[in-house]
Design a protein that fits this description.
The longest helix has about 30 residues, at about 230-265. The chain is α/β, with parallel strands linked by helices and about 375 residues long. α2 (about 15-30) packs antiparallel against α9. The strands form 3 sheets. The protein has a 7-stranded mixed beta sheet with strand order 1-9-8-5-4-2-3, sandwiched between helices. Strands 7-6-10 form a 3-stranded antiparallel beta sheet, with no helix packed on it. Strands 11-12 form a two-stranded antiparallel sheet. The chain is globular and about 70 Å long. It contains 12 helices and 12 strands. Bound molecules: pyridoxal-5'-phosphate. Pyridoxal-5'-phosphate binds next to α4 and α5.
Amino acid sequence: MNVPFVNLAAQYLSLEEEILAAIQDVGRSGGYILGEKLESFEKDLASYLGVKHAIGVANGSDALFLTLKVLGIGPGDEVITAPNSFIATGWVIAATGATPVFADVAEDMNLDPRKAEQAVTRATKAIIPVHLTGRPAPMMELNALAEEKNLLVVEDAAQAIGASYRGKKVGSLGRAAGFSLHPLKNLGVMGDGGIIATDDSNLADTLRKFRNHGLKSRDECEFWGFNSRLDPIHAVVASIKLKHLDRWNERTNEIANRYRKGLQSLVQVPEDKPYEYCVYHNFVIRTEARNGLMAFLEKEGVQNRVHYPIPIHLQQAAAYLGYKSGDFPNAEQYANTMISLPIYPELTDEQVDFVIKKIGEYLK
Ligand SMILES: Cc1ncc(COP(=O)(O)O)c(C=O)c1O
């Protein structure tokens, strides 16, 4: 049996007719930038997330970067985030001219509020909690910290669309949030895409101009901006997929439960907290036997990955920040022991059982 790590074409094929018709519709409409198809998706997504505004941008990194810029983050400011995220979480801070400051993560691989608190200085302006692997970060504690220290909270919800925390969807828990519509994400388009979510109407209004050159009308530029818009061709694909997202996330949870049951006596598995609904963009197990197990699984036809083998603070790009190995023991230990197993709605129970069996074979 073969268990590919992803199978993006399977999802496309299940919706092919509808997607092709929608793309044809865009083609025939002649409206290829901004316009009503994008607006319609933005409205549907805002309502799905339970926020007032969703703003389509070119990718999830821009969603975070543009938001930080409009919130006034820049040189001299510090922004606290987790070191075990995708590198974009780090570079978007640096790209504003601010300094990325990392704090260690807890057992759930999300920012540890006590560690975040210790990282606060007079220069700290914002926190970016990352809902890593589709599991919500501890927003109650992080929001309390932000309130006490007067910090902005911008959620990195790139991996967590549809997840919820204490009854609210992620993306509605901070001042604003960035989502990625990258093909690998739980709501993925056929290229790059991103969304900013916010309840703040002034922020949304500025961001809509900021993503479009700073234009307030066809010919009038209010401030220098960027060209970072979600294309209607992606918006229509996302609209179609949004209708299936909850069902897909439910299936993903079934798979996570099956893995959990089959593996909990063998390796460290993620455990949901009672007040969170996780969407498992990645299902990450941890074991000291990681390297051998990865190679064995690969040989047996089970593709696997590590998200992420080098924490951001140890990346060459971050060397100027002066961090060293040992600074964030949890993040570093997880980087050395974790494996992401295949998880996507199209995976069959037989494939999941095969993965469990092969892990058992190696570890026993
Ligand atoms: C946690 C996290 N943040 C930010 C991003 C950036 O999103 P994008 O690739 O759409 O720019 C990603 C995904 O790639 C991500 O996983």
